[in-house]
Amino acid sequence: MERFTVRKAGIMARDGYGGGINVIVKSDLEACKKDLQNFIGSRIRLTSNGGRKRIIVHEGVLDHCYPNVFTVRCSRQNCDMTPEVVSYSYVDVLTKAVEIAMVSAVSVSAG
What we know:
The strands form two sheets. This protein has a five-stranded antiparallel sheet. Strands 1-2-3 form a three-stranded antiparallel sheet. The protein has helices at about 25-35, 90-95; strands at about 5, 10-15, 20-25, 45-50, 55-65, 70-75, 85-90, 100. It has one domain: SH3 type barrels, CATH 2.30.30.100. A hairpin with a 3-residue loop joins strand 1 and strand 2. It is globular and about 40 Å long. It has two helices and eight strands, in the order E-E-E-H-E-E-E-E-H-E. By secondary structure, it is α+β, with helices and mostly antiparallel strands.
């Protein structure tokens, strides 16, 4: 399990794989937020570790970027009701707990 320690200079994250300590400073958080704001309205795929060899994948449209979190509006499969909204923090992205990939809008035509 990763441990996070809040320091005055930033957040220290211990690498769960026996590696070193990575320090995340406020400027890293601001840069991550700014980068994600450029993709509001774009389709993205979020991949995170659900524990016990389980991978959670959410695919949807980047909805909002708030000061500490961003939200993604995901369409539920086999359901015509309201879409699911998931939120992640920028720290999750910087510590690689969540991986983000842009989904290309490739249309397939039948014929």
